[in-house]
Design goal:
alpha/beta; five-stranded parallel beta sheet; five-stranded mixed beta sheet; elongated; membrane; Ig-like_fold
């Protein structure tokens, strides 16, 4: 049906109105239709992160006006499709307001449209025409700093992104991004923070208690691995080489100095198969010590107690084991002596460093008992309430004349990760610098002092990253270096938290790695054994020094996380000490027979040591004093001194009061009555000889003599007659018929065993039976 024509000045005809409505619907629906057929907008990180972006260089790390910023890195296509028409671009966000914002930005992953800033001028981007799957490509962005449009001082987030297309998404999209930070302080700040960075020279325990028998007592090492840390490129060599050019405070375990110094005098070490061989890295040790001595001149040196004892383990597990805490003060005294002797500088020994700076009241008490007035804590242990609105200075008075020097946790843990990767190191350095600048920009009128306590034993790569961060601060635009003593002496902020956290707040993870109570009990056993051993030595320092040092090493913080190694080390120390004590011993003695009323019984003492022993008492004791006595009682004792490598025999007079076996015990004692070594037992058989028996024996001997005389005289008369031609005497006159074949061999004794000349015996036949009851037996 045809529509009527529109009349001029009238309303549009119905047909026209329907056409208009269709046109409006069509026009309005076009965007919706476009949205349905158009590819979806770029998703965020979870969907578009197919490219891994790594930053290996940000230089300069903290630029100033007029600098050119260079950022290098790699992009890796982890997706399945080739990326085309790609480019790497730089994105700079607005200055971050506080340290929390820095941490949040560092933890973000992926690209977020509308949240992440746009790219800086694409004229400075790097084009990549094609990036196939699983292929990496290096890049270098170079851009003048003034193109970044940085405004006020602050920490600016930097994002380096790769944008491109794929076959499934043929439009430009962000496929990967990596974020870091750019600290911006172009001019020196009016108020600069004081920054104290500790540079720890600490290693694991290497020395055993075993020494040679030579004059210098050549030490024996667990292995030869320390040489690897000392030689060029090794961990400790890098710490010294890097540290000598940096504004740091050296924190040294004196045991490390003692150990390396021992290497310079000649050393031996155990091989994996248990042999002890001569060490050949004396020159390496000499070179390292010479470099360290030069590096510390004019620098502040803090000496930890000898062998870096585990303060927290002592406080939680060892304080109730007698004698344990008594080892701390000598360890502090030895620390000062070792540093002065080896490095020829005077160290401070007024600082204690619990593991990870975690403290509670018992840790503080133990730390200060060794003479330290300052405890190195960390801000994640002694935390602020936030009432100040800024981070306070490190020094906090905690009562009883002690000061907690609270290190900043973010700065202290900045380089604990794997720094072998240049990408990880670069991010760590930039984040460290960002936090240090953010600290200085906090709103407060007072100058503050901050302390950094890094991990105790940084790797070579971690040390390198630490050094790069400190070099970036050397321009001094927002920090200035200070030593640890200055930080401890700084005026505390008013209103700062000085409440030491309770025992329940100590981290469970740290508590699980502490030395157990059994470890301290084993150490006590070793100390007791050592005390008894020293009491008999003429040169006790030959064992007191090596074993005393080893006792400190058994408490070392370096055993954290290595319970099996720690237990094995303690067992070896005790076994070696017991082996030395057993070189002084009683020689095993066989049973003895005592004939008569008294006799001398010898007992020998052997000394297998190279030095003389003295102060020993040898005591023998009869198990049955009614039968066998020594002197007037059942026991006797004598002082014993034995030369090195010799034995000494001690004689005791024993008296028997009755026949029969008696057990005798021989035991060595120290002069204060403590048993020394194993006792020896042997049996003395007492044999009785009565007067009647003695008479019988004497009579028999006399008859034998008389018979002999008579036989001699008879033979002489026969010979004389034969010479004169007289006939032989008749038998029976006492002569012996020469050559009579009937005479039994053996001098004419009849076959019945009697002597013709023998008289009647003067004793009757003795009974071989047992004596009757009440029978008197002559003694």
């Amino acid at each position: 049906m045809a529509e009527p024509a529109d009349n001029q000045g009238a309303s549009p005809a119905p047909a026209r109105r329907r056409w208009l409505r269709r046109a409006v619907v069509l026009l309005c629906g076009t965007p919706l239709l476009g949205a349905l057929v158009q590819p979806p907008a770029p998703a965020d990180a979870a969907e578009t992160g197919s490219v891994d972006v790594q930053l290996t260089t940000v230089a300069p790390a903290a630029p100033v006006k007029g600098d050119t910023l260079t950022i290098s890195g790699t992009v890796v296509n982890n997706g399945r499709e080739t990326i085309t028409a790609a480019h790497v671009g730089l994105r700079v966000g607005s200055a971050l307001s506080d340290r929390t914002s820095i941490d949040e930005a560092a933890d973000r992953n992926g690209f977020r449209a509308g949240t992440d800033p746009g790219e800086v001028d694409q004229a400075y981007s790097v084009k990549i025409a094609s990036l196939p799957s699983k292929v990496s490509q290096t890049f270098t962005l170079t851009i003048p700093v003034n193109k970044l449009e940085l405004e006020k001082e602050g920490v600016y987030p930097l994002g380096v992104s790769l944008s491109g297309e794929t076959d499934s998404r043929p439009y430009e999209q962000v496929l990967g991004i990596k974020r870091t930070f750019l600290p911006w302080q172009p001019e020196p700040a009016a108020k600069r923070s004081q920054l104290t960075y500790l540079w720890p020279l600490i290693s694991t325990t290497r020395l055993t208690a075993e020494t040679g028998s030579d004059e210098v007592q050549t030490p024996v090492f667990l292995d030869d691995s320390l040489a690897d840390e000392l030689r060029t490129g090794g961990r400790l060599e890098r710490m010294v080489s890097l540290g000598k050019e940096l504004p740091i405070t050296w924190v040294i375990d004196p045991d490390l100095l003692y150990t390396v110094d021992a290497m310079t005098k000649g050393y031996r070490y155990r091989t994996p198969d248990g042999r002890v061989v001569q060490g050949r890295n004396k020159a390496v040790a000499e070179q390292w010590l010479a470099s360290l001595e030069a590096a510390v001149q004019g620098k502040k040196v803090v000496a930890l107690p000898f062998a870096d004892p585990d303060i927290a383990s002592l406080a939680h597990q060892g304080k109730d084991v007698s004698g344990t805490l008594g080892q701390l003060r000598p360890a502090t005294d030895k620390a000062k002596q070792a540093v002065e002797t080896v490095l020829h500088v005077t160290p401070s020994t007024d600082f204690s460093w619990p593991v990870d700076g975690a403290i509670d009241p018992s840790i503080v008490n133990v730390a200060t008992s060794a003479g330290a007035h300052h405890v190195l804590a960390r801000s994640d242990s002694l935390q602020e309430t936030g009432a100040l609105g800024y981070t306070p200075s490190a020094a906090r008075p905690i009562g009883a004349g002690a000061t907690a020097v609270v290190a900043d946790a973010d700065l202290s843990t900045a380089f604990e990760g794997d720094m072998l990767s240049a990408a990880n190191s670069t991010l760590a350095v930039q984040r460290f610098l960002a936090h240090s600048l953010a600290l200085n920009l906090q709103k407060t009128d007072s100058q503050r002092s901050f302390v950094v306590t890094p991990q105790r034993m940084p790797s070579a790569s971690q040390a390198q990253s630490m050094a790069e961060a400190l070099r970036a601060l050397q321009a001094g635009r927002w920090t200035q270096p200070a030593d640890l003593e200055a930080a401890a002496a700084a005026k505390p902020d008013a209103g700062v938290n000085t409440q030491v956290p309770g025992a329940g707040q100590y981290p469970d993870a740290l508590r699980k790695t502490e030395l157990p109570v059994a470890a301290f009990e084993k150490i006590r056993t070793t100390l007791n054994t050592l005390d008894h051993f020293k009491a008999i030595l003429t040169a006790p320092d030959r064992v007191e020094i090596p074993f005393g040092n080893t006792t400190n090493r058994e408490m070392s913080t370096s055993w954290r996380g290595r319970p099996q190694d720690a237990g094995h080390y303690r067992n070896q120390v005790q076994q070696y000490l017991v082996g030395l004590t057993e070189k002084v011993k009683l020689v095993p003695k066989s049973d003895a027979t005592l004939s008569g009323h008294s006799a001398t019984i010898p007992v020998s003492v052997q000394n297998g040591l190279v030095q003389d022993v003295q102060g020993l008492v040898l005591r023998v004791k009869s198990a049955n004093p009614t039968r066998l006595v020594f002197g007037k009682s059942g026991q006797a004792e004598q002082q014993v001194t034995v030369q090195g490598g010799h034995s000494q025999t001690v004689k005791f007079t024993a008296n028997a009061t009755a026949s029969g076996p008696v057990e005798v015990t021989a035991q060595l004692f120290t002069e204060n009555g403590v048993p020394y070594g194993k006792e020896r037992r042997f049996t003395v058989e007492a044999t009785e000889i009565t007067p009647t028996v003695m008479l019988v024996i004497a009579g028999g001997v006399l008859l034998l003599v008389l018979a002999g005389v008579k036989m001699y005289a008879s033979r002489k008369r026969v010979a004389a007659r034969a010479a004169a031609g007289d006939p032989a005497e008749p038998a029976g006159d006492g002569g012996e018929p020469a050559g009579d074949p009937a005479e039994p061999a053996g001098g004419g004794q009849p076959a019945d065993g009697t002597q013709p000349s023998d008289g009647t015996p003067d004793t009757g036949a003795q009974s071989t039976g047992r004596s009757g009851a009440g029978e008197t037996v002559d003694r």
